[in-house]
Structures are given as structure tokens and as C-alpha cells.
Amino acid sequence: MTGRPTVVVIGAGFAGLAACRELVSAPVDIVLVDRHNFSTFQPLLYQVATGGLNPGDIAYPVRSYVRKHPNLTFRQETVTAVDTESGKVEIADGELISFDYLIVAVGAATNYFGVPGAAESARAIYTMEDAVAVRDKLARSIERASSRGVQPGELTVVIVGGGATGVEMAGALAEMRRMQLATTYEGISASDVRVVLVEQQDRLLAPFAERLSAYAATALSQRGVEVRCDESVAEVTPEHVVLKSGEVIECGLVLWAAGVGPCSLAQALDVPKVKGRLAVDEDLRVSGHDNVFAIGDVAAAAATAPLPQLAQPAIQGGQHAAKQIRLLLASQPTQPFRYHDKGIMATIGRRSAVAEIFLGIKLKGTLAWMAWLGLHIVFLLGVRNRLSVILNWAWRYLSWRRVGRVIVGN
Amino acid sequence: MTGRPTVVVIGAGFAGLAACRELVSAPVDIVLVDRHNFSTFQPLLYQVATGGLNPGDIAYPVRSYVRKHPNLTFRQETVTAVDTESGKVEIADGELISFDYLIVAVGAATNYFGVPGAAESARAIYTMEDAVAVRDKLARSIERASSRGVQPGELTVVIVGGGATGVEMAGALAEMRRMQLATTYEGISASDVRVVLVEQQDRLLAPFAERLSAYAATALSQRGVEVRCDESVAEVTPEHVVLKSGEVIECGLVLWAAGVGPCSLAQALDVPKVKGRLAVDEDLRVSGHDNVFAIGDVAAAAATAPLPQLAQPAIQGGQHAAKQIRLLLASQPTQPFRYHDKGIMATIGRRSAVAEIFLGIKLKGTLAWMAWLGLHIVFLLGVRNRLSVILNWAWRYLSWRRVGRVIVGN
Questions:
Q1: pTM, two decimal places
Q2: What is the pLDDT of residue B410?
Q3: Tens digit of pLDDT for each residue in B2-33?
Q4: Given an 8 Å threshold on Cβ–Cβ distance, is B408 in contact with A36?
Q5: Which among B63, B132, B406 is the nearest to A38, CB-wise?
Q6: What is the ipTM for the molecules in this complex?
Q7: Cβ neighbours of B37 in A, within 8 Å
Q8: What pLDDT, on a 0 to 100 scale, did the predictor assign at position A176?
């Protein structure tokens, strides 16, 4: 309508918002489309799942950002199809949105790797809905056990996947058990609660240095988490998990943190794929397409190893894609994407974390924990959210309490 | 089990918790039963409904209180029946809990007064689920209107009932319109949004002095609320409301704040009723029963005018019932309940409220608003909740923003 080219960005996560931030100063009209009207700060989802933070604390209202930029329009819609030939995106009611450039940043879906029963009986913690559902299920189990007596296995949680998500979730559950359950719920003792962490590889946190992996395993074990490396899950049912070794663990909750795969929109796209992710060239354009970029969890480089599915690659990818659009508009050649690894970190609990940051510096314990706290506060979007998270963390740290807050069905 | 008498308290609202607070120092075992494991601060539900506060901010985890008192047990259960003869309460799975004394504090349900379509199409804001559902419906309508264009009536809200709840809701929606909608959502202008407040009597806030009612009506009108006194609702459909005068108002949301009536448990109880509420004698015992008390919204005095359905009568009733149990245990005669009216207040918006407090002092405007803020902070349960609400209010006051935070399905 303005005569300027239209860039449609699908997905308001780390990648999509980073692209928008770079594009708002470009001579384009941007249409940002997302199913939700908030952006989820996924690194803290596990704290929502364990009742330490409110959903609102880590949900940033997209409108707060959009309204500051006249060339950015937001539409809360579900994208049902993409026609890369004619340059149109279809939303729920059949309406078509035309684009000159498209940035696909829709994230991923949980990948159950075909383990029987996993899709039906295990729970993911990839979206806000996932986290809230886990929180409510946990709280209901605990209340039921306290009111009616603990059934065998009822309060056993099996976490599948010893990456950052699995480790952080295990640490948070272990802390919940130590700090809260036995003191707050009559009829429940710490020994009624088991947390089992299953990892296929021979160590936790495979992307970290070995001594940090060892530290994490020891820290979790000291907190009472049963760490099972070199082990995997053969089957999941509503009542138990069968491990490859044949061991059967009765449990009330199976959390699936073993990896993510393509979401349905990505699966439906008629473009080249790498293990279900959209195959991108060096400049992050989808292979064979001049005006379609894919960034974040949904994308994978065709030529090199896929990037880790973390916030940093998503943010950097978003910035890069936006810059390429600026170059293309100026009829200049695109540039290859170079990921600058700013480090990785995972928290285990109170004053315990691991981090590998710039220059190969490796941290563990209190220092890593403080770095983790600081960085998560800095990267959280929205001043109100930051203050609210600081308040909740300070409160919990000082009071050693974390009472599950069930907002039923919420 | 301890040989001490058991007091069962059904309901963890203002009334039930006040009773527990008085009983924890008595030689009794208390079993507190509630469907939820949190206590809702109902006076601020309208702020959850309008996206100004998170549900967690006004939900106080019952366990936080219960765990400090060894003679108090909490059970998150739904009570399905009460047998006052044999002294037993039945919970969901058929389990029976025996009591020596029973305190019924289950609150009320929305009363649609038989208006056709109201129960199906209007929404209440009496429980946390109600408030969250209203918030999500509002946010979805606004997003849809912004994305697809405003349909006639889509953003019209009709509020039925000009008591404190209706006035506060109308004020909050008016502020949302002024502060947020036009600046935040493209395609929506303030004139697309109508807020209509319908009151059967000839003035709003009937329990307040006339000049405060007049102030409230003027303040709301200045904020663009259409106030219709001497008017009532004849029919509600999903698309419109028909007023008694014959006027038809197309609308997207009907909020029912016209009154509360008996909940299903109260209806099922085989005891004398006053307009559906459990009839109580002077000492708050249910008429004809020696060991059963009813307090809060579920109760009504058989002999005198029913008390307003507010926090103060509930709290005072809870304290009184608990004291009567102490007297009965000491074989002393019970005392009649005297309600000490500590005043009433309602907020309209930024620096605008009405209050009638001790000694008949009537306040309006900024002073009343500050009194309202202060009292609500003081009475909110839990230090963390207080801090969080102060943070949110300060943020909103300073930034003039209140961006709806949709946690879909939450």
C-alpha cells in the first residue's frame, strides 16, 4: 500500500523479534504474524513449570514493541500455508498476505523420535502451554498425594534428555523437593519424591566441557537426582517408563527434553529439508528461494553442522536475515552467516550452575550461577518482567520457599 | 485421632481462612477443604479480568499458611455432600470426613435471576477462572478486531449491575480504552469501543451515599462509559443484549455483575434457606443445627437483613464462628454476631474512587483512591503478592500502559 516492499515475519520468538528489530529502520513494511500475542522467554519456561515464576513474568506482550514502530504491523493469526511461488502466506480464514520477502521463524515442535507412547504420555516444556500444563499436573499430583496418601510412583518424575533443559528441570525439581514438599505438604516426605534424569550419551550437557558435565552430574546427585547416563527410554505409558536396559520405573510424570523437531508448518513447506528442519544456504535463505529466509530452531544449514537450538543463534540469525534483506533491496550481494558463540550456560540450583563463556572461560558453582542470573535478567524483554522476575527470585532466595501456585486450568 | 474435636471448614476464601486463623490456637483439629489450593483475593479479580494483574498476584497459596500450624490440615478436594445428622462431609471419591463442628464458607455462585440467555451468554467475574476467561476473551476480541477489522458491536462490552464490581470493571475498561487500545492496536480507535453499564436502580453504588453515587456516575461518564440507570436486561444472546426499554445493544461481551446466589453445594444442603442462602441464627449457626455454622456469602441471617457480600462481613463472620466453637467447647453460651461496618469503597480509575469509612466520613477522588490502594495492599495476603501488586500498579501508574497479557487458555 505504501509502495514499499513487504516483509512478512512468521513467529515472534527470539529469531522473529530480532529480525523485526533490525528491519524497523529499513524502507519496508513489516507484518509480524504469531499464534500468540506474546513472546515467550523460553530459557525460563522450566521455572514456570516448577511454579517459581508466573507465566506473565516471562511473556512479553508483542504489542508493547510493535506499537512503537509505524512500519511494523502485528497480526495474531495462525499461518496455515505458505506459497513461495506466488509470494503469499495464508492465515486461518483463508485470507492471503502477500510478501516480497518472507522470514520463517516458527520454531520447532517436540521430537519424540518415535519412542512408543512418548507422544501420548510424555510432556514437553517447549511452549508456555506446555509449562503451565506441567505445573498444574505437578501441583495436582502433590495435592492429591498429600490429601489421599502417596501411591507408589505417583511422585516420581522421569526427565528424558540431559541437555540444558533436562538438567535445569531436574535441578528445580530437586530443590522443590528439598525446600518445599516435606515442609509444606503433610503426608509427603522427601523420600516419596524421585527425580530420574535419563541421558542417552555418556555424560550430561554434552556441548559443555567434560569437567563441567561432571560437576553438573555430581551437583544433581548430591541434590538427590538419580542421573542415568548411557541409558535411554524404550517406551512410555501413563504409569511407567521402560528403559532400554529393561528397568521399569513407575512414575506420575514423564518430561520430554530430548530434543525438538519440525513443527507442522515446516513439515508442510515444499522446500528442501535437513532432518525436518528447513535447509538454508550460507546467507540463511531457504535453498532454492531468493526471497525466503529461515532462522532459529526451524532452520538448519545445508552445508554445515546445525546450530544449537538456543536463543543466541536465533537472535543472530534474525539480525542476519534482516540485514540480507537490506542488502537485497540495495541490489548488493548477500553475505554468509557467521555464528558468534557467546557461550552456553545451565543452572542446577541455588548457587550452582555451569557456564562456558568468551575466550573459553569455564565457570561453575556460585560464580556461574550469578552469571546465569544476571544474563537472564538482562535478556528478558520488558522492564516490568525484569522487575517481577527479580522480585520473585529474591523472594525465593531469601525465604527458601517456593510454594506451587496452581491457577487451575491456567 | 488426637482425641480433640475436629472442625471441618469448607472453603478457603475470606470467611474460611478467618475462621482457621482464630481456631489454630484452639484445642481442636482443623480440616480445611477447598477445590483449589489457593485463596483468591476477590476484590481485585476485575484487574485480572482487564489484564492489569497476573492471576498469581492475587492468589495466595493456602499451603503457605497451613504449614505453619500443626493442628491445621488442608485437603484440595471437592465436597460432594454434607450429612449434618451423622456429622460427615463427603468428598469426590466417596471418602467421608467426620466432623464435630462444621463451618460452611463455600461462597456463592452467580445469580442470573432467570434472565433468558444470561446463564449461557453472559460471563461472571466471581472466581479466578471467570476472570481469566474474561481476560482471554477480551484480548482475543481486540486482537481479532485489530487483525481483521472491527465488526459492529464486536468491541462493545455491556456490564450488568452497577454495584462495586460493575463500577470497577467499567472504570478499568474505560481506562483500557483511553490508555491502551488506540495507541497499541492498529486499526482500532477509541470510538470502536463502547462500555455500557446497566443498573436496575436509579443510581449506581446503591449502598453508598447519594452524592458518592452521583460522583461515580459523573466520573464514569467523563471516561466515556454509557451509564444506564433505571434500566435492566430482558435477554442476552451471544450477539446482543435486549434491554427492558426495548433497546438492542450489539455487543461482544456481557459481564454479569448483578448479584450472586446459592452455589450447588448450598442448594443441596437440607437446611433452612433465605433466598437460597443458608439461614443462620444470631450466633451464625445454621438454623436448627447445634454444630454447623455458615459464614460469608453463603449465609444469611434469618431474622435480620442479609449482610453485604463483601470481604469484611466474611472475615468477621469467620472470626465469630470460630469464637463460638471455643465457647461451645468450654460449655459456655454462644454470643450473637454483630457486624462492625468498617466502610465500603469502590475505585473508578486513576485517582478516582469513592469511600465511606468510619464515623461516616465520605471520600471521593484522589484521597479515596489512595485509601483504596492502601487498604487493598494491606489486606492482600502474602508479602510476595503485595510486592508484586505494588510493582504492577506503580508500573502502570507511571507508564500509563496496560498491555493485555494473553496467556492463551490460561
A1: 0.89
A2: 37
A3: 689 999 999 999 999 999 999 999 999 999 99
A4: yes
A5: B406
A6: 0.84
A7: 139, 143, 404, 406
A8: 87
User: From the list A77, A139, A384, which residue is nearest B147 (CB)?
Assistant: A77
Q: Is A404 on the interface with B (CB under 8 A)?
A: yes
How many alpha carbons fall within 13 Å on the CB side of residue A199? 22
Residue A407 has pLDDT above 50, yes or no: no
How far away is chain A from the Cα of B333, in angstroms, using its nearest Cα?
35
Cβ-defined contact of A410 to B185 (cutoff 8 Å): no
Return the pLDDT at A184: 82
Of the candidates B35, B63, B148, the beta carbon closest to that of A403 is on B63
Q: Is the pLDDT of residue B247 over 70?
A: yes
- Share above pLDDT 90 across residues of chain B, in percent, rounded to a whole number: 71
Q: B325 pLDDT exceeds 60?
A: yes
Give the chain A residue whose CA is nearest to the CA of B133.
A410
Give the per-residue pLDDT at B186.
83
